[in-house]
Specification:
Residues 1-21 are annotated as: Disordered. By secondary structure, this protein is an alpha/beta fold. Helix content is 36%, strand content 14%.
Length: 410
């Protein structure tokens, strides 16, 4: 079954709430009648919080993450976002942090210490790799990168001191889909925690905690916020794993601002309808590009030929609007001729907003175990399909590829 003909993800992996996920997205994390009937949770700007009695102060200090204690631990709008994400992700509780990278740092440090070992898929988000190498390495944690297509063979890289397996699916830039059930099972058999970056699929299209992962995170900056105007990281975890994750997040001490929490909650309310459009447009662009003379390969998990396509069909309930294309060989000047003059696709980091983006990328700079796989290949372009008219986006890509074909190599 192709991604395009899948049943809707509504209702898949439901929690105890009997409603479909589209309904839950509208209602989670808000209680209007606790706020004078106001539909959206109010924003509180606060650092200091006052307590009327010593007993109230001591009670709040016993668990500052459960109530309103001090601004760094969050305000009611923070807790509303955390509750909403935990409900959608299927976790025990949620955590909001100032960025996706901060959330990744919390995942990496929650279960590791000096002398420990971490296994990381070789196609993770580049800042994840930087944190693993530079931050963990500085404090005596060893890191091994493995082929994302290793499946159960990931167990061959575990050591007695391996504490964490860091997963991402699909992989950053190259969009391979790992055999998550096989890797999770191997980690559980070895007593290794698992953490997964789910920014690409969101809780709509993949439920990592239901698959057995211990911790899940998203760069809420991307699809959750959805409008390219706020930085955000969100996490959830199992009941067993949550305390260590909460402790790590508190030690990092990087909460999101209340206005960013408000923007994330507002974006969350339209996540389902936006993702459906990103998915539809992304598939239309990917299929069109697959037949273009200037394109050697389209790396979209929903299309046959993308590594891990069968795992995608088995484990995911849909696709987002982010994918990559490998062009026919050409110089930097030819790439510039294409991307410098796009009418609708603009160059910029991040993705997940309403606007379409295009970004030249070189996976070799962020690979070790699989670097040879990307040597001698054509230029790679990462494409984010926004909410514009698909026909207009296709015309823009066709015009860009015509410039690429016509330009002379330097």
């Amino acid at each position: 079954m192709s991604d395009e003909t899948r049943p809707d993800a509504t209702g898949a992996h439901r929690n105890e709430d009997p409603h479909g996920i589209d309904t839950r997205i509208v209602h989670v994390g808000r209680d209007p009648f606790a706020n004078h009937g106001i539909v959206n949770p109010p924003v509180h700007h606060a650092s200091t919080v006052l307590f009327p009695t010593l007993d109230a102060l001591v009670k709040a200090a016993a668990d500052p993450t459960r109530g309103v204690y001090y601004g760094r631990y969050g305000t009611p709008i923070t807790h509303a976002l955390e509750d909403a994400y935990a409900e959608l992700a299927g976790g025990a509780r949620g955590i909001a942090l100032a960025s996706g990278k901060t959330a990744i740092l919390a995942m990496l440090t929650a279960f590791t210490g000096a002398g420990d070992h971490v296994v990381v898929l070789d196609n993770v988000y580049e800042p994840t790799r930087a944190l693993a190498d530079q931050f963990l390495g500085r404090y005596g944690v060893e890191v091994t990168y493995v082929d994302p297509m290793a499946g159960a063979g990931v167990a061959d890289h575990f050591r007695p001191n391996t504490k964490l397996l860091m997963l991402e699916a699909p992989g950053s830039l190259t969009f391979e889909v790992a055999d998550l059930p096989a890797m999770i099972a191997a980690a559980k058999a070895a007593g290794v925690r698992t953490a997964l970056d789910n920014s690409w699929a969101t809780p709509l299209y993949l439920k990592p905690l239901a698959m057995g992962v211990d911790v899940v995170m998203e760069a809420g900056t991307k699809y959750l916020v959805g409008h390219s105007d706020a930085m955000m990281g969100v996490l959830s975890a199992t009941e067993e794993a949550f305390p260590a994750l909460r402790r790590a997040a508190s030690e990092i001490g990087a909460p999101p601002g209340p206005d960013d929490c408000y923007l994330a909650l507002r974006g969350l309310r339209t996540l389902s309808v936006r993702m459906a459009r990103h998915r539809e447009t992304g598939l239309a662009l990917a299929r069109h590009l697959a037949g273009h003379d200037m394109v050697r390969q389209v790396l979209h998990p929903a299309l046959p030929g993308c590594p891990g396509h069968e795992a995608f069909l088995r484990d995911f309930q849909g696709s987002s609007g982010l994918f990559a294309v490998e062009l026919q060989p050409g110089s930097r000047d030819r790439i510039a001729a294409m991307v410098d003059h796009m009418a609708l696709f603009k160059m910029g980091f991040s993705w997940g907003g309403y606007e379409s983006l295009i970004l030249p990328a070189d996976p070799r700079r962020a690979r070790t175990a699989t670097r040879d796989r990307w040597t001698g290949r054509g230029p790679l372009l990462r494409i984010h399909a926004g909410l514009e008219d698909p026909a207009d986006l296709i015309a823009d890509l066709d015009a860009g590829l015509a410039r690429y074909a016509a330009a002379a190599d330097a």
